Amino acid sequence: MNKGRVKKQATTRPKIEQYIPSIELKKIPPEKALAILKKAGYEIDQDQSEEIMAFLYIIVKLTLKEYFTSD
What we know:
Elements: H1 30-39, H2 46-68
Helix pairs in contact: 1-2
C-alpha cells in the first residue's frame, strides 16, 4: 500500500472546458457561418469557419459566465 500517493481521477472534459459554463447556445450551422464570413470578405474554407465559430462560442460562454453567474 502506497501511503501519501494520491490517485488522479480521470476527467472527461478537456482542461479548457472546466472554465466554460455549460450554457446551451443556439449554434449557427457551419454553412451559414461560412457564408457570413465570406460575405464579410474572409477567404476561408469550411474547417476554418468551424474553428472560428468554436472559438467565438468559447468567448461568448466565458463572457456570459463572467457577467451572469454568481461564482
